[in-house]
Amino acid sequence: MTDATANAAPAAGRRTSKSIIETDANTRKRNAAEARFRYYGMAAIGVGLFFLCALTFSILRSGLPAFTETAVTVDFTLSQEQFDEAEGQVLKTAAYEGFFVRELQAELNEEGASDVEVSEAAVGRIMGKVGSQIREFYRANPDRLGEEVSFTLPASSRVDRYLNGNLSREQLTNSRFLEPDDLDIVDGLVESGVMVNAFDWGFITGTDSGVDNPGGAGLGASIMGSFFMMLVVLVLALPIGVAASIYLEEFAPQNKFTDLIEINISNLAAVPSIVFGILGLAVFIQFAHLPQSAPLVGGLVLTLMTLPTIIISTRASLKSVPPSIRAAALGVGASKMQSVFHHVLPLAMPGILTGTIIGLAQALGETAPLLLIGMVGYVARQHPDGLASGLLDPNSAMPAQIYTWAARSDPAFYEKAWGGIIILLVFLLFMNAIAIILRRRFERRW
Amino acid sequence: MYDADHNRTESRVSQNEIKISSRNVQVYYGDNHAIKDVDVDIEDRLVTAFIGPSGCGKSTFLRCLNRMNDTIPICRVEGDIHIDGEDIYDKRVDPVQLRAKVGMVFQKPNPFPKSIYDNVAYGPKIHGLAKNKSELDDIVERALKRAAIWDEVKDRLDASGTGLSGGQQQRLCIARAVATEPEVLLMDEPCSALDPIATGQVEELIDELKQNYSVVIVTHSMQQAARVSQKTAFFHLGNLVEYGETEKIFTNPQDSRTESYITGRIG
Ranges for the ABC transporter domain (chain B) (predicted)? Predict the structure, then answer.
């Protein structure tokens, strides 16, 4: 470029021209840097995808067995005399267990597996408390005495884990819960088709069980707990948050005080959730004397937590509505409020809803604040009965229930915790999908 | 208007009635004195053009006439602006009512992201101009016809206003402005975002609108001012330098600054 000699006539244009087909060193260096950057990016995404796959795989592997249940189905006919006889004994449930074992053996013989011999002790280990379950049924439905009733009774969690391949014979030495000989009986029951491993709706709809019965534990009651909490959050946080943002964005004067409010809202969004938990404990439970472990209190705490998120996203979407729309509305003589409610708010709605759903999803997975208001550790033993009971009766929430299960010693509960995580993730994915659909549906139209 | 100490000349020979009169108007943006001592009488049923270089205050002054500057918190207006003898900055005046009387068309076409029908019907609806649906239909049709866009959109009144071409959008905005039956129509560079053909259509429309309204148009194009307006006001650095018949301003300006501007030496 600069090697044009002094005696070269400028009019002749004797500047040495470089070929654009040959790449020069500078360009090569730049291209290499660009290529490197692309590889870095791909590597970063690759690492992310790998961990995502690993996480999904491990969650599914550990959690899916929680959705199946091993159960024994036995057709049972109990006469009035047998019922009276059993009720007359001192160990009543043992008597029912005797009936059950007899029927089970009969069933086995019928299926051509008479070589499998069941004893009351073995059934007690394999099946748990079958006697009391049968007794409860007949005491509740005395009219069914004398007819054939089909009982589907769950096997113990260890049998579950054995059939799912998570428990080997070698691990069974010295176990008073399950003996190696019992496994032969289990194999026999499975072969004859009396024992079936099937999808367990009880895990999704049921209630939590005691520590000694992991197989019967379900997430249903805590799903309802979470649902009622989300209801409280939605009913409180959405109107308050949207009203606050509209005022701040459209009506409030710009001064030191509103600046201060703005900074505080941004800061609140970053406050650790456990701080909201302790605030909820102090204000709602100790000061306002609302019931402990109630979804109402959980919902109030999560509302406080979600409000900043909703306010920030609502303000952002109000800001993104072009000022020309406001000017147009004012220009035809709309009042400030009419211009906001007729024009600005409808255009900002998809953004507001997206922000709200993301905020709700965040609140749904929140565990720490629930720790402090007593929703973690509570065993949800019954479904809420109606709106008032759903809000005020003690309950657990999904993440709290998962935490409770994970903290229990029985490895079968560990499995349930993973299963609970799957359900929680399905809910979160569902909510995020709704947010994405809303955003796509109502893309900005100007 | 006739005070001699102003560096401004006046040449008015008109029979029309005065619609808007401003006296001693000052506008401040914070500490910035944007409009200085503007006295102007805008007549009814003709087109008045505001010309001047960028930042000279012509749009600011236009926005004073329907109090759109109220929406800017740091903006302060002093002086008197009367429409039909009523002070628009009187404390009792509701700017919403004023804006129904003084319609506005903006620089960039800004139809609402709603149907063409809803765009035009919105103003009449909020002002309660129609008692029922058929009256509203009539108002919409009349406004669209007045804005010379009826034939192009009558078959698709349910289509979105934002789907129209730029020129059509601007005429839709004009229809929206005239639908509320204003008496004054303010236009802030209505053609600056339009191509020459659409500009021609809008200018033709402005010429027709002056039969019913007092039209005030801000424009950067001197040719446009010459084509559409009967009176022209030249603003420079916040001052109203010269105001008079358009023909005179362009052929025989009294002020040297006006002459410099229209001959292209400043601005």
Answer: 20-262
